[in-house]
Amino acid sequence: MFPVIIIFSTIILLLIVIYFVGLLLPKKRVLTKKIIFDVPIEKVYNTVTNNADWKYRTDLDDLKIIDTNGDFQTWEEISNGYTISFKTTKKIPYTFYSFEMNSKLFKGSWSAEFKKIENQKTLFSATENIEYKNPFIKALSYIFMNLDKYMETYQKDLLKKLKQ
Question: Where is the chain membrane-spanning (predicted)?
Answer without folding.
Answer: 6-25
